[in-house]
Design brief:
about 725 residues; alpha+beta; Immunoglobulin-like; Cytosolic phospholipase A2 catalytic domain; 2 domains; 12-stranded mixed β-sheet; 4-stranded antiparallel β-sheet; 23 helices; 22 strands; about 15% strand; globular
């Protein structure tokens, strides 16, 4: 491929792609570039409390910084360094200087106040020394290191003052440079893959004829995860996965995709088989044991303390994600970061990963107010506001688009909790506890108290059993919640990246779309709060349980879309509710989706595969829509899997194919334990449903290539 990347054809196409992306341009977000003061607390030496405490124990020092003239946050505190007189912090804080700082001599007189803090006899914070420093004479753009003498020890710091700095938020509707670089490498590879599976005559003749193929995979809890095992195996075996540019997931399918990417098991058949066999064993036991595990609660205490150390909110979603990730990806991978997946993706041998969520308000239902969020290993995107944040800054402290304090990057188990947070809303069902009325007791206080008792009585006979019994009583209080903050917080909560921005404008998902009179529009909805310290996210499936919109954005130019829908219950399937909502939401944002004749579809028997297309619009994608329908699978009186990765130890018997998915408690969305037979049935079903439709899909892909070829010829004259 290296020689192709230097070819005239590729360079012309790359220019075309770059110009097309530039059409979406920078957006008019009011942003006055601020001046800033960065203070980095590096290390301390010989911290002395000058008390008898020095004999008993070493101090746990921290530094508080106060700069009262700053715009926005005026105080920051370092983390506490435990049991040391020579602490190492290496923590950076950014103050936004007043807009008139350079011209206002009175403002320049203001000094930074540094407080050296240790713990006293009662473990309370005790300020043992204070010092001041005036940064007004610091040179612009030059970092200066100083030692501050507190008389109780010295602290080394660095200072840097800058003017008119660029924000840490990328305000734009364009795709990021990283995503564009991925496309430049990936789409030539998908061209070669299409040529391999379609043949020289029917495949694309050049890169301009190569369709962008994406997949959007629905929620559905562990049902979706198990089904996605079969989908991934079928796409890998047939070579279709190598033809895809984007892979989007929400809730259960998002768990699968993020786990497969974490394990580098998305395309490699050996790693894929290893992951699927591990996952089959993982879901052979219910997640209830993890959630009610006292040991898990103690482990989570350290996770919670780490977040609170950086003033990050902690909700029950954190705990659910921590427990659930043990079954979805495994403890060896659950604490990795999304950015760790970047090298794997930038090789461009797998599709670009997108996980779907929504930003919401606390007391407004999701349909009345929502803003689409796309979480990738590169950015956290809110396309309706043109806000894009490096994923390493996700859940850091912001003001006026500047990172005041960069917090540790969010872990995979928290991300999986966010994209599957509907299950924390209905946690009682997940752990199979009959729901009773909620009361006002505080679950986390109870848990904290009980864990403290456990530390003291850990070896007491029968204590663990008693603890688990009380956990069941507390979870009995969890109901099918409506208000996201009543009783306990059950919605993912993050630090507000829009803090300090008064006039952020809201756009349609397609910024070139202008709704006609009488059409639904989303631009008039109330948006992000500039004053709140935190904002809320939810499982994208609460709005529509299939993430079609992230890949239908015109910037991504999807030509063919595979949809795998595991989200329905038995009653909903005849109405195709998820499909209908996906179409409605796409059209509300000005995104193209083929015509859906829903009344005609509802009259027909439900089937495993549908094709939707618009013969009159060459820019409208073809949609391949899959369901876990068993009708054709049941017709196989005897069954022997021919997939490459099948478990040779599994014996298929007459009747293996005779089961239902949507009307079965076994495959209910909140069920988290599968027997080997249940697992194999659903995996084989989805593998089968894809395989039997491969030739039909190939013909439609050929049609799209021919359509692009004809359009290219017309444009060239």
């Amino acid at each position: 491929m290296e020689s192709y990347y230097n070819s005239k054809e590729f360079l012309e196409w790359k220019k075309f792609e770059s110009e097309r992306n530039a059409e979406f341009g920078e957006i008019p977000v009011p942003h006055k570039k601020p001046s800033i003061l960065q203070v980095t607390i590096l290390k301390g030496r010989d911290i002395d409390r000058s008390s008898i405490l020095n004999i008993v124990d070493k101090p746990n020092p921290q530094i508080m910084i106060d700069y009262p003239i700053a715009d926005g946050p005026t105080k920051f505190t370092t983390t506490r360094q435990i049991d040391t007189i020579n602490p190492v912090w290496n923590e950076k804080f950014t103050f936004i200087l007043p807009d008139d700082y350079q011209a206002n001599d009175e403002v320049k007189k203001a000094k930074l106040k540094f407080s050296l803090i240790v713990e006293d006899w009662h473990d309370d914070n005790d300020v043992i020394a204070e010092e001041f420093y005036n940064p007004s004479d610091l040179p612009i753009g030059l970092e200066v290191e100083k030692q501050i003498d507190f008389k109780r020890g010295t602290v080394t710091m660095r200072f840097k003052k800058e003017v008119k700095v660029e924000p840490n938020i990328r305000f734009s509707m364009k795709l990021s440079d990283e995503e564009m670089n991925f496309r430049y490498k990936r789409i030539p590879k998908t061209m070669k893959a299409l040529q391999n599976i379609l043949g020289v005559d029917d495949g694309p003749k050049d890169i301009f004829e190569t369709p962008v193929i994406s997949m959007a995979c629905s929620g559905g809890g562990f049902r979706a995860m198990v089904g996605m095992c079969g989908v991934a195996e079928a796409l890998t075996e047939t070579g279709l996965l190598d033809c895809m540019t984007y892979a989007a997931g929400v809730s259960g399918s998002g768990w699968y995709l993020s786990s497969a990417y974490a394990r580098h098991a998305m395309r490699d058949e050996i790693k894929q088989k290893m992951y699927h066999e591990w996952f089959k064993q993982s879901v052979s036991t219910s997640i209830t044991g993890e959630i009610l595990s006292v040991e898990k609660m103690i482990e989570f205490g350290a996770v919670s303390a780490q977040k609170k150390k950086y003033h990050q909110p902690v909700t029950i979603v954190d705990y659910f994600g921590y427990c659930m990730s043990s079954e979805t990806v495994g403890s060896l991978y659950s604490s990795m970061k999304l950015s760790d997946m970047r090298p794997y993706i930038l090789e461009a041998n797998v599709p670009y990963l997108i996980l779907a969520s929504h930003q919401v308000h606390d007391v407004v239902d999701t349909w009345s107010y929502h803003a689409q969020c796309n979480i990738t290993p590169f950015e956290f995107e809110l396309p309706q506001y043109g806000i894009n944040i490096d994923i390493k800054y996700f859940n850091s402290e912001f003001y006026r688009g500047i990172v005041n304090r960069q917090n540790p990057e969010t872990t995979l188990h928290y991300i999986q909790g966010v994209i599957g947070s509907v299950f924390s809303l209905r946690l009682a069902k997940v752990i199979r506890i009959p729901c009773e009325e909620e009361d006002e007791s505080d679950l986390f206080d109870n848990v904290s108290n009980e864990v403290e008792k456990l530390r003291r009585k850990r070896d007491s006979s029968g204590f663990i059993d008693g603890m688990k019994s009380r956990m069941v009583d507390w979870f009995n209080q969890l109901h099918s919640f409506m208000d996201r903050s009543f009783f306990i917080k059950r919605t993912p909560e993050i630090l507000n990246f829009a803090r300090g921005h008064d006039d952020i404008q809201r756009f349609e998902l397609n910024p070139h779309y202008i709704p006609k009179e009488g059409e639904d529009s989303t631009t008039t909805l109330e948006g992000l709060s500039p004053s709140e310290d935190t904002t809320l996210l939810v499982d994208g499936g609460l709005l529509v349980n299939v993430p079609t919109n992230p890949v239908l954005r015109p910037q991504r130019a999807t030509d063919i879309l595979f949809v795998f829908d595991f989200a329905h219950s038995g009653e909903e399937i005849s109405e195709h509710w998820v499909l209908q909502k996906a179409v409605k939401l796409a059209r509300m944002g000005g995104l193209k989706f083929p015509p859906i004749h829903i009344d005609k579809i509802k009259e027909e028997p439900w089937r495993e595969f549908y094709i939707f297309e618009d013969a009159d619009d060459s820019e409208c994608p073809i949609v391949f829509y899959f369901y876990p329908c068993t009708e054709k699978f049941k017709r196989l009186k005897t069954y022997e899997s021919s997939r490459k990765n099948r478990d040779k130890n599994v014996t298929y018997w007459e009747g293996f194919t005779d089961f239902d998915v949507m009307d079965s408690d076994t495959y209910g969305m909140t069920n988290s334990d599968y027997s080997d037979v249940d697992f194999e049935r659903l995996r084989e079903l989805m593998w089968f449903n894809v395989i039997i439709n491969v030739e039909v899909m190939k013909r439609k892909i050929k049609d799209k290539i021919l359509q692009k070829r004809t359009l290219k010829q017309q444009q060239s004259g």
